[in-house]
Specification:
The complex is a heterodimer of chains A (about 325) and B (about 260). Chain A is an all-alpha fold and about 325 residues long. Chain A has a domain of about 220 residues. A two-stranded antiparallel ribbon of chain A has the order 1-2. In chain A, helix 1 runs antiparallel to helix 10. In chain A, about 45% of the residues are buried. Chain B contains nine helices and ten strands. Chain B is an alpha/beta fold and about 260 residues long. In chain B, strand 7, helix 6 and strand 8 form a beta-alpha-beta unit. Chain B is globular and about 60 Å long. Chain B has a six-stranded mixed beta sheet with strand order 6-7-8-3-9-10, sandwiched between helices. Classes of the chains: A mainly alpha (about 325), B alpha/beta (about 260). At the A-B interface, helix 8 and helix 9 of A face helix 2 and helix 3 of B.
Chain lengths: ~325, ~260
């Protein structure tokens, strides 16, 4: 049971990095980046290949850099080449499929068994003779590794989004006319924002590959919907307040989503249902507030209808 | 000095919706000019502003600002030199961000990775207190919570934070209630005078057009039909304006929001 909770937490935290990426691109920049799936796989592929060559830490940076390139392409398509923002994400996502296969050496999967990863490195850090103080953490070395990255990304976002560049990125999603009036090119802020967001997505993919000791071409399938669902769940708890607080909310959302999924699995829901569940959550999370705003109007309509029916009944009587 | 030389702009050329918005318009705005602009619906007043601000490029002609050719300069680059307010108070600020965050972007000081400093915050407070709206105590509140008048006043402050070479006011008080509109006009006058700004202001309020500024321009059918300044402008009445319009345009001033008093 403990192991189950631990695994849930770990997987939730890994995907929370993608949620934080969407927190930047979707919540701040107001761009729905549909290349997220491909970028996650890209991060996994690059992360796995570089780890395979014996450099697990370099793999992390390489995966993030690959994410930057992917984000750069997506943003150039939408800001400089007149392609709709949703379409440019889809186009890049499709293209990345081939790129990812090529990166993994013309194969659809890479195995990392017995390969040094950031997780095994963390383990060997704790697992030293006579190191009793750290020893009690040994069981949690994977969780700690992921948590380390999550905290760094949250701290980075909390800092970055309050710098002038970060403010400009937030304003771009909020009112791009105002950004222009401040002599800032919204194309520049969109490009920067998407590069940073996709670097985080790449990191997320890389950690996932090293965590499960393998990368495959489907590793990022549906990630954008899962992350969006998590983000919206997180928003239910912490939609207002400081950036750091909202970022933590996004992480909580990711872990909660994973928890719900794990519980559903315990009740014998087939594993393949994950994606349907995430889709339904996204729909509910967006439709919910919409329905709430429409509800009074709907009730009024209903009452009017009833009223008319009543009048007709009276006439007939 | 802003020099506009023979600019033209046609929307949807070659289609059934073709509309010649500006036709061979030339205008020289001297430093320190405060020009009020009046005209019928569709006279090309806002199109002129869009051309100056760079919302689109003109089909022909040149625009020079202090001898720099800005004809093909993109709008965000021009924004360094040209401040602008719209009728809609919502357009000028980011509602989801705080007052100080909005002002930071408008101030545009420091490097990309710099954060708001204490000195900046104090400067913001000082500037905001000039508005006399109590906004100086609400630095961290989102702009979305402000009223239309407060937001327009804030936008005015943002647009003039770094005094621009030209300030464009496109009926910036038309969406406000009369009392608030008066207040924003007073602020506009104060800020323009203090910074000795060169200013162009579109208005549908005849009285305002006469009272404010040192020069008045009447537009019709994509061009300037009457340009008056100095003592001649001071002696004008609203009746004069309507008569002048009829003389020059050949028909009565047709503006569905025109205010005579």
């Amino acid at each position: 049971m403990m192991l189950l909770i631990q695994t849930t937490l770990e997987l939730g935290l890994i995907s929370s990095l993608t949620v934080l990426a969407l927190f930047l691109s979707y919540s701040m920049l107001n761009v729905c980046d549909l290349s997220t799936d491909g970028c996650f796989t890209l991060g996994a592929a690059v992360g796995a290949m570089v780890a395979l060559s014996g450099h697990p830490i370099l793999a992390v940076f390489a995966a993030m850099f690959a994410g930057v390139i992917s984000g750069f392409v997506v943003s150039i398509l939408q800001t400089k080449m007149g392609i709709d923002s949703l379409l440019s994400g889809i186009v890049v996502n499709t293209g990345l499929y081939s790129v990812n296969i090529a990166i993994m050496g013309d194969s659809s999967q890479v195995n990392l068994n017995k390969v040094k990863t950031v997780f095994t490195m963390m383990r060997s850090l704790f697992d030293k003779e006579g190191n009793t103080a750290l020893g009690i953490w040994l069981d949690w070395y994977k969780t700690l590794t992921v948590l380390f990255f999550v905290i760094i990304v949250i701290l980075f976002l909390a800092f970055f989004l309050r710098t002038r560049l970060g403010l400009a990125i937030r304003a771009t999603g909020n009112n791009s006319a105002m950004v222009k009036a401040s002599s800032i090119n919204p194309a520049f802020t969109t490009i920067t924002g998407l590069c940073v967001a996709n670097a985080i997505t790449g990191l997320s993919g890389c950690l996932m590959a090293q965590y499960q000791k393998s990368a495959n071409i489907d590793i990022g399938g549906g990630m954008v919907t899962i992350a969006l669902a998590s983000l919206l769940i997180g928003g239910v708890f912490m939609s207002r307040g400081k950036i750091a607080k909202r970022a933590v909310g996004a992480v909580i959302g990711a872990v909660l989503f994973r928890l719900v999924y794990t519980i559903a699995l315990r009740f014998n829901m087939p594993a393949s249902m994950l994606k349907l569940v995430s889709s339904v959550i996204v729909v509910i999370a967006i439709f919910g507030p919409y329905m709430r705003s429409r509800y009074p109007m709907f009730m009024r309509k209903l009452e009017l209808k009833k009223g008319y029916a009543g009048e007709r009944r009276d006439e007939n009587a | 000095m802003l020099k506009i030389e023979h600019i033209s702009k046609t929307f949807n050329p070659g289609t059934i919706n073709e509309k010649v918005a500006i036709k061979d318009l030339s205008l020289t705005v001297n430093d320190g000019d405060f020009i009020t602009i009046i005209g019928s619906n569709g006279a090309g007043k806002s199109t002129l502003f869009n051309a100056i601000a760079g919302s689109f490029f003109t089909d022909s002609g040149r625009i020079l600002l202090d001898d720099e050719d800005i004809t093909m300069q993109s709008d965000h680059k021009r924004a360094r030199k040209i401040g602008r307010l719209f009728q809609d108070p919502m357009l000028g600020s980011a509602p989801g961000m705080s007052i100080e965050e909005n002002l930071t972007l408008a101030a545009g000081r420091g490097g990309w990775l710099s954060r708001i400093t204490k000195a900046e915050r104090n400067a913001f407070k000082e500037k905001l207190s000039l508005l006399e709206m109590g906004l100086e105590d609400r630095l961290e509140q989102p702009v979305g919570l402000l009223s239309g008048g407060q937001r327009q006043a804030l936008t005015l402050l943002m647009a003039t934070y770094n005094p621009p070479k030209i300030l464009l006011l496109d009926e910036h008080t038309a969406a406000l209630d009369p009392a608030t509109a008066d207040k924003v006009i007073e602020l506009t006058k104060k800020i323009v005078e203090e910074n000795n700004l060169t200013c162009l202001m579109i208005t549908h309020n005849m009285q305002q057009a006469l009272e404010l500024g040192n020069r008045l321009i009447m537009m019709d059918n994509g061009n300037v039909i009457y340009d008056v300044s100095g003592d001649e402008k001071k002696s004008l009445t609203t009746e004069d304006l309507l008569r002048k319009f009829k003389e020059n345009a050949g028909n009565a001033l047709d503006n569905d929001r025109i205010l005579l008093s």
